[in-house]
Amino acid sequence: CRQALRSAAGPEVDFARAEREYQLYVGVLRGKLGLQVLELPADESLPDCVFVEDVAVVCEETALLTRPGAPSRRKEVEAMKKVLESLNLNIVEMVDENATLDGGDVLFTGREFFVGLSRRTNQRGAEILADTFKDYAVSTVPVHDALHLKSFCSMAGPNLIAIGSSEAAQKALKTMQQMSDHRYDKLTVPDDAAANCVYLNIPNKGHVLLHRAPEEYPESAKVFEKLKDHMLIPIANTELEKVDGALTCCSVLINKTSEL
Amino acid sequence: MTTEVGSETEVKKDSEQLGPDKAKDKPEEASETPVNQKSRETSSEEAQDSSSVPAPTSQSSPGSQKKEKASPESKGISRFLPPWLKKQKSYTLAEPKDETKKRTTGEEQVVEESEGQTSEGVAQPKKSLEEAAAENQHNVKANDKEEKHSVSSAETQPAKDGKETEVEKVAEEKEEKQEEKEKRETKEVQTVEIKTEIIPQKSPKKSKTVQCKVMLLDGTEYSCDLEKRAKGQVLFDKVCEHLNLLEKDYFGLVFYENSEQKNWLDSSKEIKRQIRSLPWIFTFNVKFYPPDPSQLTEDITRYFLCLQLRQDIASGRLPCSFVTHALLGSYTLQAELGDHDPEEHRSDYISEFQFAPNQTQEMEEKVAELHKTHRGLTPAQADSQFLENAKRLSMYGVDLHHAKDSEGVDIMLGVCANGLLIYKDRLRINRFAWPKILKISYKRSNFYIKVRPAELEQFESTIGFKLPNHRAAKRLWKVCVEHHTFFRLVSPEQPPKAKFLTLGSKFRYSGRTQAQTRQASNLIDRPAPYFERTSSKRVSRSLDGAPTGISDQSLLRGLPTTGGQAAGDKILDIEAAGQAKLKEGGEEEDGSPVKTPQLELTQDGKRHASRTEGPCTGVSDADKSSHETLDIVEEKKQAEVGIEETLVVDETNKGKMQVATDAGEACKVEHLSKKDSSSLPSDSSSSSSSSESEDEEVGEYQPHHRAIEEVIREEQEEEEDVKRKEHEEKIQHVEATAEGSKLSVPVEHTQVTTEDLVQENAVTIATEEKNLSEEIKQDLGEEKEEEQLRLNGDVSHVDIDVAPQIICCSEPPVVKTEMVTISDATQRTEISTKEVPIVQTETKTITYESPQFDGSAAGNAGVLLSAQTITSESISTTTTTHITKMVKGGVSETRIEKRIVITGDADIDHDEALAQAIKEAKEQHPDMSVTRVVVHKETELAEEDEE
């Protein structure tokens, strides 16, 4: 599914290396962490289908199938829908043609949602997300100079937001801090891209954090390495990063046991 | 009777905690200063108002004392007033004695209820609902009548008991002491209070009870009979007692107007002033949703919170997901039905419950499924689990208000424990935590928040929202004030004091804060009360044994109140009280009401007014140091209900006087000064975190300023000019009147700059009181000084300072009062501009020419030309005109002082009424200029204090 990756101007993607990185990513989740990983079939007609995060937002028992901001990606939702249905999740589809939402713009902190208003996500999309997850506050965060809200931030712990150092990232963080009734800890890393990490709380393994490898972002890796309560797993993502891919983009975490 | 009275007084004292101190202070001051003149004036005024009315003062004294004790000002006034009232009472007594005696028991009960709120359901059969209804409809008019009736009844009681008179005397003496200094101001306030107080008492006698229905959270209905004049607290306490609820500070009573607008019943105000339509139907609701329900002390409290949340959820006000609906529903079943019983709980047992706005079969199945998992949970545990899940909902405890942003986009403003949330549709688009908010204000239908500057920003920003109407804006503002106070402050702020800066509504949250209620609930020492979790039915209780003395007092109070125009009466009473103080016991006992009124009239009406006003302002500035200050606050509170506006039109042959041609200009000037002052407080607040909360409150006051600034910037400039002119004029006047005064003025200015002018003014009023004023200055000095310094740029402040000083030098303390009034005047102007949306604030502004009067005071002859009372359905206006001609140094001066009392509910557009009054005054005397506008706004909040 990484053949015709849509990309901005930049270096060519080494597909073989991208494949290896992806396999490592899956291998860590499935093998090292013992998670059940459901892989969607690759669809060569959908060059961005590897970034499954953008097409679904899953929280507890409810899954919202998004309407991606890029028209070329709308069909990615169908494959995701089939898988989620198989999980008996309560599925909500975003049918409003005026709404767009990329999962990459959705930051769920465990207490609330932040939705980045970006080129890919609009107000209406955020509203539908708010209607879908009524228990939670949904705050909007303007995103500039980045593809997605999570292009420069992510959750690195139950109450910890990893945030990049760029002006756009810091501005977004301030907005989030102002909008929230809750005070989050923040983990500031020098590189925006490194701020996108995958946090998992796995029984018997505790806090697990997949972060970018020291080879890629040595300074940021040092920051992560200061997290003492976390099981740290460096993962390289050099190739997908060339097409705006981040660590979180490649998976949708679902807290549910599949019966399949 | 005496014994009863004593008990009542005690009760009042308790309630009045703040009041007594003030009262004590005041008495001392009062003794020092001669109040004879005041008493005379007041007596004359009262007499003019209505022969029937005067009696109330005497009666009111006992009752008023009690009440007044609660609110020092009011107490003092009542005490002073009593002599006249007593006389009148005696008259009335002779006639109605029998009836009154019979009624007394009932009345007593009523009184107790009102005061102690203990007597619940003692619905006095005599009272007819119809009467009550009529009263409600014609509040003002009815009040007059009622007052008379009550007076008569009160009188009758006293007649029965010789002791009563004694008690009254004692009370009077006390009052006199207090009054002496504050007499004028306090009197006004007191009279107002008295009236209110009296009215409730009267209602019982004449069967003026109103049936209240309260919809409880469990769906049952609680009904009871209340005196028509009862305050919200009475009903609320009854309901809480009925519910056996101790942690009641989280709850409140709601009434709906237009079936849509949800209003919280202000427990400090009379119910009938808040709810217009006759069927008094309330709903008992959670007002402050505790962020952590587990910290509630009692299960019963949590139970009621659960009931409220179930309502919120079922109605859709509290949105939640399918899963949460099911989970919360399952806890509800566990709490109300206990463990799932397959035998008893068939498939459809759930359908009786409503868990969600759109309840589906699927959801019910899910609820039942989850219910089975809760086996073993006690009802209390199930409730706790329910709350633990419900409190996490994002809209938990968020009070939503429809609004539009500055671009006209529909948004929702959500008030919660942490601050103000801005929603567009379901999305949170902004949030302002309480610490971020410097001021909250509303003007007309606009709601403003002034926000602390962001990290890299230097200037605070004001954000405006458009509410559907003025009422909605005020409602939102009040909710904000209450939530901020409840959740953010350790103890409620004192109601806004009469600082010149304060404008608009003086509304403050008067209940306990969350911190206080937690503290109090820690002291709850009772076995967990048993309560039925399904609908529980209880019968309203009736309390008996209200002390007759109390009833008598109430009656007495009622008599004074007979003046339907409470505000006007109040003013008159105050002055009278002051005079009475001078005369003291002897006259009071004799109760030659006529004399006192005459004295008042003869005396300088202006002086009295000025004095009263001045002290008030001074009081407001100073916290407790001066009783007056306290009084002022109360007056302000009362102002919400009825606004006393005093227009003083001074016409001076001299060109100097002409300076302030338009009251409006003066108003503008005042506004400017206010603005300045407002800015100062905000700054100070921002500096310190602790001050932040205060600042926020200040901000509330300031909001007016803001509005003024924004809307009236241009006007402000004009106003400033006007103010300068006025100041100049004032100065000129002083010079013309007395050379010595001129000399003194400059010196004073220097002094003033250092200290707070306003405060000084207050001090100056009573030489004896100076100590107090000094104290006040010390207390307030720092803040005021800052303000003054800032204000120094404004001419108005300087002028004010000068004027007081002048007065001191050339004249007796009276002059000083004038000074004070001047400071007030600035505030008034704001009011007049109508920019102050919150009309409720009690601000007194007076522009003074005091030096002239002082010089001529000895030779001045005051003639009361006319007293007019115009009563309309919603507004009662009383106009008292004093025309004084004076000759000083070859210059003849004609002063026309008009006192216009506008009595009405908070809904009245006071600004408009004031503007109209000013306009009329101008029209009537085209050749004269309006030099002073004193606005007294009295709010019912004071009443709460009293009780």
Automatic annotation (TrEMBL), chain A:
Keywords: Hydrolase. GO terms for cellular component: mitochondrion. Gene3D superfamilies: L-arginine/glycine Amidinotransferase, Chain A. Pfam families: ADI (PF02274). One of its GO terms (biological process) is citrulline metabolic process. Substrate binds at residues 5, 48, 53-54, 73, 120, 243. GO terms for molecular function: amino acid binding; dimethylargininase activity. Signal peptide: none annotated. The active site is at residues 148, 249. Belongs to the DDAH family. This is DDAH1 dimethylaminohydrolase. The lineage of its organism: Eukaryota, Metazoa, Chordata, Craniata, Vertebrata.
